[in-house]
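Journal club prep, shared notes

We agreed each person brings one worked example of a sequence with its structure written out as tokens. Mine is P-type Ca(2+) transporter. I'm keeping it raw so we can talk through how to read the token line rather than staring at a rendered picture. Sequence first:
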Amino acid sequence: QSTTPLVKSEVSTNHISREKRKSLGGGKDDIMIETLSSEQAASHEVVPCTHQLRTNLEEGLTTAEATRRRQYHGYNEFDVGEEEPIYKKYLEQFQNPLILLLLASAFVSIIMKQYDDAISITVAVVIVVTVGFVQEYRSEKTLEQLTKLVPPTCHVLRDGKESMMLARELVPGDIVMLNTGDRIPSDLRIAESFSLQIDESSLTGETEPKHKETRAVPQASIGTGADVEHLTCIAFMGTLVCAGRGRGIVISTAANSQFGEVVKMMMGEESPKTPLQKSMDDLGKQLSIYSFAGRNVVDMFTIGVSLAVAAIPEGLPIVVAVTLAIGVMRMAKRRAVVKKMPAVETLGCVTVICSDKTGTLTKNEMTAQSIATPEGKLAEITGIGYSADGGVVQYQGELVQQWSHPEFARIIEAGIVCNNATIEVDKLIGQPTEGAIVVLAKKAQLEGVRGQYKRLREMPFTSDTKWMGVQCADAQGQNVYFIKDNQRKQCDQYSRQHILEIGKELGQKGLRVLGLARGESMQSLMFLGMIGMMDPPRPGAADAISIVKANLELVIRQVTVFYRASPRHKLKIVKALQALGEVVAMTGDGVNDAVALKKADIGVAMGVCGTDVCKEAADMILCDDDFSTMTAAIEEGKAIYHNITNFVRFQLSTSVAALSLIAASTMFKFDNPLNAMQILWINIIMDGPPAQSLGVEPVDDDIIRQRPRNTKQPMLTGKLIMDILACRQTTK
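Then the structure, token by token:
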């Protein structure tokens, strides 16, 4: 046990009146607030933690004490600020430089008493911003249907009685009861554990559940706080109990929890502008300079409005908005929700994709792939995930069903009897490794053998022994022991070497290997064989990665795998790549991905298995978790920019003609031949429809394989200007 002293955090209460402090039970200038960090709680045994938090494991807190603590700690929920009013969301659409330039032109028209011009320009602007606002508002409404990460209720011990209450009412010191299927409502110090296993994949990315114990963790194993995997006596907010039961002491809530640290990191990062937004900003600045360059103040106000309206392709914001909106609708049909319209185009210029593996590239559903006997016989298993439909077990072309092949049936029997998982409507209740064996038994029509044995005793898996065993009685009342093991067992040298070679072959296929044995006692176990399993890739993920790699093969430096990256590590990776000039896409599904998702140029979250905070941070959400939708989004992004540049060429050629006419009339002191309203009519009404057709026309099928565009290159290049002035046809 560590000798590190428990630290009581003091919270200044100078802002609380003397009367208020008395009513809360305090009379000092500073009131001691009971709270512990996960590292502090993990380094001490249960009793010292209980004393520090001033609670009782058998009685819990009293209602009065919980109310008093809540006034200090607040509710167990995250303060993300008030929802932005709808009018502010609408006004944000006016921040586009082109829109601001048009509004400036309308203002000058009012000063010059050209009210018809001002009205025409304003109407055009309102149409543009409304199209963008409506589409983004619809996306936000879709997101409101997504589920919340923190559970609404939990089982708590209060006033000596167990009751169900809202998770938001928890305070440090509360005693929470845990059962299979429960979502952890706050950070807990485990005080009681009966084969308790918790799925922490949403926080750490690791698929294998963590076995939780009550004993303290040695100080040397705790680390810096960024790595939570070694805190085996702590349950973290938002994670899931997948097996066993227990109880825990609330040590921290809301923003003070490990999950809260991720949320604070995420809120501290600013989402970058998309490459399209940057390109449009640059284009707006260029056009602003060109429209007023070389004019004195009097001339600027005399013909400034006409020049500005002539130089600015008013249809451009409309076409961009409509083109993006169409892209968003196309993506919606492919089950992808785009929160911000410019994000559709961003994937078209991505140079690096940072993808989380567990739950993103894979299904996060452990699946048995092979069964191996000690003699080297190998049976293959088809089907993936927790559904047995269409899956079979085959050995040399023969179906393995029930006891048709006893050598394989005995392995499956041991796996299903030494098992606590169940599958209900293709949903796992229990841990993934055991779930894979349950599905395997269904495929071999052996799921019923579990009912042929009466379980007498269970020897749970621990981090020290790394095996699980059960003692059962068969139909004749004879004792039988079944063991699941992932450690080496002693046997004669030849057999041991042969078994290890088989296990190595399975491991080289990327499979997790589990050994099984049975016997009349723990001293007379017979090795039955091994089951190889894996978390299978999502359908289409391999093809999608191949296509993306072909798209990026000219610019990608190398493929790198980062193992067990924490949220802080992932953020550093994204920032480092952006500092090198890369356009970074990040895909993920867990809490540990949220910060990097927000910081990336485009963040893509999984809609089904993704956590709520992950979806909130992302720019795009894949509703069916299909990674292949990424390739469609890349194709859509490239097509959008390609069509927008085609429109710019077309519209600017019209603008050059209007500018030339106005400039010539000004040079020879003729009356202005075109006012702003006439130019608007030409740009929007006459040129709009053909230009819009350019904005939505289909592109070449091989656009996905084209090199990502250079985001540093402006849309309005010198070559493009010369082509327009020379009336030359350009292609891209």
